[in-house]
Automatic annotation (TrEMBL):
Residues 22-31, 47-68 have a biased composition (Basic and acidic residues). Residues 1-13, 69-80 have a biased composition (Low complexity). InterPro entries: SprA-related. Residues 33-46 have a biased composition (Polar residues). Residues 1-183 are annotated as: Disordered. This is SprA family protein. It holds the Pfam family SprA-related. It comes from Azospirillum brasilense. It comes from the Bacteria. Residues 156-174 have a biased composition (Gly residues). Coiled coil: none annotated.
């Protein structure tokens, strides 16, 4: 199973559903939207210059966001793909992005626990995780909890040591808590956003990662 972790569209650009993105992107994973050609034949107006500066800021933020996913996801993270908006200066700027992360369970439950720690760390690596990022983190917690339950049934492995520290949320079950083993790899604000979204109290010992 592959899940997408992404930065949401900004600057008034709607973020397409994954199925739409897959259809509309070019083979290199890039999609050019918006054909604002004002100012191409002459000097940009003050408003257009402000638009360009904002697009540059957004482009840098989106690329940093996706780079954080890739760095934390390691071998489970794929390449980044971007949606572009053409600015008044005729240049394309990234205004949304996505990194595909392998979030499928392994055949060995211990390997699944380790993998889900990495998947969750990848989802929460940016300081400003999107709603999709939070859903992937929640999904990783649920998959990890299932693997821990399997280990507890066997009476051995990290599941018995971890107990219920990572109570994933699926169906009628309660909110998930950030994994203790993944915590050092999570960006502080990313983990805080996850905690806030799922009604978890603040935790200590969470360190930021290099972005």
């Amino acid at each position: 199973m592959v899940a997408g972790v992404s930065s949401s569209g900004v600057y008034g650009v709607p973020l397409l559903r994954p199925s739409q993105q897959a259809r509309d992107r070019s083979p290199d994973g890039q999609k050019d939207i918006g054909q604002n050609t004002a100012g191409l034949s002459g000097t940009l107006t003050d408003d257009q210059q402000r638009q360009v500066q904002e697009l540059k800021r957004i482009d840098a933020s989106v690329r940093q966001h996706e780079a954080a996913h890739q760095a934390a996801g390691g071998p489970h993270a794929g390449g980044a793909s971007f949606t572009f908006t053409r600015g008044p200066d005729g240049k394309n700027y990234a205004t949304a992005g996505e990194v595909q992360v392998d979030a499928g369970a392994e055949s060995d439950p211990e390997a699944t626990v380790r993998k889900m720690d990495t998947v969750k760390a990848a989802a929460l690596a940016p300081s400003d995780p999107s709603a999709q990022d939070l859903r992937v983190a929640q999904q990783a917690d649920a998959t990890k909890m299932q693997a821990q339950q399997e280990l507890r049934r066997k009476g051995s492995g990290p599941g018995s040591r971890s107990g219920g520290s990572s109570g994933g949320q699926d169906g009628a079950e309660g909110g998930a808590t950030p994994s203790d083993t993944a915590a050092p790899a999570l960006a502080a604000r990313g983990a805080a956003a996850y905690a806030s979204a799922y009604g978890i109290g603040p935790r200590t010992g969470t360190a930021g990662i290099m972005v």
